[in-house]
Specification:
The chain is an alpha/beta fold and 455 residues long. It has 2 domains: 196 residues, MOFRL domain (glycerate kinase, domain 1, 3-Layer(aba) Sandwich), CATH 3.40.1480.10; 251 residues, Rossmann fold, CATH 3.40.50.10180. The protein is built from 17 helices and 15 strands. The strands form 3 sheets. Strands 6-5-4-7-8-9 form a 6-stranded parallel beta sheet, sandwiched between helices. A 6-stranded mixed beta sheet has the order 10-11-15-12-13-14, with helices on both faces. Strands 1-2-3 form a 3-stranded antiparallel beta sheet. A hairpin with a 2-residue loop joins strand 2 and strand 3. It is globular and about 65 Å long.
């Protein structure tokens, strides 16, 4: 435990400690460790949760790994399977493979996120080809993590990739939640909403899942490729109506959704009777690790929630309000305090700027904590990518807004234009320690973290 009093009025040392808390959270969410914690190999068997899988009884063993953490999760499974692995396909985001090399029997494809691209379709086609002649005598191991919805896509008949890209972009800019976004995408795609199971030829399937979804809903994580899909075309159309998007959708998408509304629902749980879905890691694990680190350093801690949602700038105001309450009356925890929340906010894009939900949250919070000494608010995406930027998020303190004014940078204008990334970039060099959080691709993806530290 360090002397927290000695850190007061030392922003460089304070930022260093907060960075350690962030590293502790990311380490706890490491995909390889998540696999090894839940899966062991004993002789010719895999031990997973309460199930023993005899690899010697399988005719062939296939591996499909999709999402931002796909390479790391696959690495652990390839190690565990060793000689039992027949072949596999890994599809992940550009830059998320790093220096890792897959064995020759495993194809690796990098694709687009958050908007799918031609490699997203190629990845789905590769999975389809891998499983083309799979049977009930085979075993399919799936490693699934967030981002899979965009990274792997098989467009429904009559819908082009360009139409899917346009639809995804419209939904992302509308402020729709990940649940709402996926309710629509599952209706437009043949691999989502349990589609991967339907491609597997009845193979016994084990899916190991790193959750990036609030509440760990299996049907939502990566759009639920191995989970029974309870959503309907009516659910998808309600999203379109709620955000008034009908006139902004491509004609093919609108026609497909409308046709689905008129058709009789056809959904069966039978293909999922040979499927086991296991959550191996989540936002809660990362948040608890950050809390444990802060407590070990002498902070009074509160893990407020891992169900954080809402418009990013409004959540930023709430975070600042909590800081003001602690500053005024030492409530809900006394200083030195650390309050942690996890989840995923949204941004309704109204301006032409560049940013991400975590950077926008932090910028909004900076207004509310102005003048409160030794107070910090950090918001970051655990995958290292916050929106279409090179930052994971941002961190601000009580002196931040004064420094912006001294540099003659109008923070309110940047916020109004959804231009948080440009704001933090332009302010770099004018602040001490506060600013963008840049981690690069972390190899994991368990939603976002919000950290409030008061020394």
């Amino acid at each position: 435990m360090i002397d927290l009093k000695a850190l007061r009025s030392d922003p460089v040392a304070q930022r260093r400690l907060i960075d350690e808390a962030i590293r502790a959270a990311l380490k706890a969410a490491d995909p390889r460790e998540a696999i090894y914690r839940r899966v062991q190999r004993i002789g010719g068997r895999l031990m997973v949760a309460d199930r023993a899988i005899d690899l010697r009884q399988a005719n062939r063993v296939f591996l499909v790994s999709i999402g931002k953490a796909a390479a790391a999760m696959a690495d652990a499974l390839i190690d565990l399977l060793d000689e039992a692995l027949t072949a596999g396909v890994i599809v992940t985001k550009y830059g998320h493979v790093g220096d890792w090399q897959a064995p020759g029997s495993v194809q690796v494809i990098e694709a687009g996120h958050p908007v799918p691209d031609e490699h997203s379709v190629a990845g789905a086609r590769a999975i389809e080809n891998l499983l083309r002649d799979a049977t009930e005598r085979d075993l399919l191991l799936c490693a699934i993590s967030g981002g899979g919805s965009a990274l792997v896509t098989l467009p429904a008949e009559g819908i082009s990739l360009a139409d899917l890209q346009a639809t995804t972009d419209v939904l992302l800019r509308s402020g729709a939640t990940i649940h709402q976004l996926n309710a629509v995408r599952k209706r437009l795609d043949r691999i989502k909403g349990g589609g991967l199971v339907r491609l597997s030829g009845g193979a016994s399937t084990l899916a190991l899942i790193l959750s990036d979804v609030i509440g760990d809903d299996l049907s939502v994580i990566a759009s639920g490729p191995t989970a029974f899909d309870p959503s309907t075309f009516a659910d998808a159309w309600r999203v379109i109506e709620e955000f008034d998007l009908a006139d902004r959708l491509p004609e093919s998408v609108r026609a497909h959704l409308q046709a689905g509304l008129r058709a009789a629902p056809a959904s069966s749980t039978e293909p999922f009777e040979r499927v086991q879905n296991v959550i191996v890691g989540s936002n809660r694990v990362a948040a608890e690790a950050a809390e444990a680190f802060a407590r070990s350093q002498g902070f009074n801690t509160l893990l407020l929630t891992t169900f954080l949602q809402g418009e990013a700038r409004e959540v930023g105001k709430v975070a600042a309000a909590i800081a003001r309450e602690i500053h005024a009356v030492d409530r809900p925890v006394a200083r030195p305090a650390c309050v942690i929340a996890g989840g995923e906010t949204t941004v309704t894009v109204r301006g032409p700027g560049t940013g991400g939900r975590n950077q926008e949250l932090a910028l909004s919070a900076a207004f509310g904590i102005e003048g409160i000494r030794d107070t910090w608010i950090a918001a970051l995406a655990t995958d290292g990518g916050d929106g279409p930027t090179g930052a994971a998020g941002a961190i601000v303190n009580g002196e931040f807004m004064a420094q912006a004014r001294a540099a003659r940078i109008d923070a309110a204008k940047y916020l109004a234009e959804n231009d948080s990334y440009t704001f933090f970039r332009d302010l770099a060099g004018h602040t001490v320690s506060a600013g963008l959080i840049v981690t690069g691709p972390t190899g994991t993806n368990v939603n976002d973290l919000l950290l409030l530290f008061m020394f």
